[in-house]
Design goal:
Layout: E1 46-55, E2 58-68, E3 73-78, H1 84-91, E4 99-104, E5 107-108, H2 113-119, E6 120-124, H3 137-151, H4 155-163, H5 166-184, H6 204-216, E7 222-225, H7 234-249, E8 253-258, E9 271-277, E10 281-284, H8 296-315
Parallel strand pairs: 3-8, 3-9, 6-7, 7-8
Antiparallel strand pairs: 1-2, 1-4, 4-5, 9-10
Helix pairs in contact: 5-6
């Protein structure tokens, strides 16, 4: 008696890769994942057209247009209370725009704010990323290296780092923060207690250098610095701008809030000046006409708007 042999099932041909999510509805492609900072290289170009931010008390800034090439220094200057810090935070993806569109390093600010936050670091923004006065310089550096290893590294690189020996990981950490310190021009040997110096004992320019070094540990494409020239003498202001120019010369784009923009930067580093004011939000330095000083009531009202926005960012 012969047994009936079942017919073999036809082999299924693999479907061509169309870049769609199988769970996504037909006819709609899955959105591309946001790139990781390790997958991007070079500085970030800043392109903004007519952007504005409205707070609970009205417009913080409006009609802002910025165009800067990678490796430039963008100086956001204007009177206190004209939305300079909020504009800085908005361009780094920390505040949501009300109107207009901007691209940071080719990423759309409205659609890819999370990816922009991973490529743009805050170097010194009081009220948002303050240093801990009781911690030492060395403790801040070690903490930032550990946070970067845990949260700011691409998955494959993080896996490779986890497979290294503790001795190799310590050597990698020292190399990373040594490179950042050299780029920021901060020599630990010149501090009163070297790496054991508390932040409260640092001079203002030394604190600025430390903040820049901490930001550069993550190898960002853009860094943001607030109040660059606040309470600095003329020679120290020149040193501060020379520091930011050296960072930009290495390829990192710099956004800097200042009371008065410099006439130029060392090494012919590109400088873009954006002047903020109460009436029109922001404009380029060439287009800004001379205007009378704002009234005290207007300045107080704008400072309240900025304070509300900063408080909201700090809670986030």
């Amino acid at each position: 008696m012969t047994r009936h042999q079942p017919e073999p099932e036809p082999q299924r041909q693999p479907e061509p890769d169309t870049g769609r999510d199988p769970a996504a509805p037909a006819g709609r492609a899955a959105p591309a994942p946001d790139p990781h900072p390790a997958e991007l290289a070079g500085g970030a170009a800043v392109e903004a057209e007519g952007i504005g931010l409205k707070g609970p008390r009205g417009w913080v800034f409006r009609e802002v247009t910025v165009e800067a090439a990678p490796g430039s220094v963008v100086a956001l200057t204007g009177a206190s209370g004209t939305g300079r810090t909020c504009l800085l935070l908005a361009l780094t993806g920390r505040m949501k725009l009300t109107e207009g569109e901007a691209r940071i390093g080719g990423l759309r600010l409205r659609k890819q704010a999370a990816a922009i936050r991973r490529t743009a670091a805050l170097a010194h923004v009081p009220g948002v990323d303050d240093l801990e006065p009781s911690l030492t310089v060395g403790e801040h550096l070690r903490e930032r290296v550990l946070l970067q290893r845990r949260y700011g590294t691409a998955p494959l690189a993080a896996l490779k780092a986890a497979l290294r020996s503790p001795r190799q990981r310590r050597a990698d950490a020292r190399r990373v923060h040594d490179e950042a310190l050299a780029a920021a021009g901060l020599d630990l040997a010149t501090l009163p207690k070297a790496p054991r110096t508390a932040v409260r004992d640092l001079e203002r320019l030394e604190r600025l250098r430390l903040c820049v070094a901490l930001a550069l540990i993550g190898r960002p494409r853009l860094i943001a610095v607030d109040d660059v020239d606040l309470k600095l003498s003329a020679p120290l202001r020149e040193e501060a701008w020379a520091l930011l120019a050296s960072v930009a010369a290495s390829g990192v784009t710099v956004l800097a809030v200042c009371g008065e923009a410099p006439a130029g930067l060392p090494g012919d580093v590109p400088l873009v000046v954006v002047v903020t004011d109460r009436a029109t939000g922001a404009r380029t330095a060439e287009d800004a006409p001379a205007e009378p000083a704002p009234k005290a009531d207007d300045t107080d009202e704008t400072e309240k708007e900025t304070a509300d926005a900063l408080a909201e960012t700090g809670r986030a």
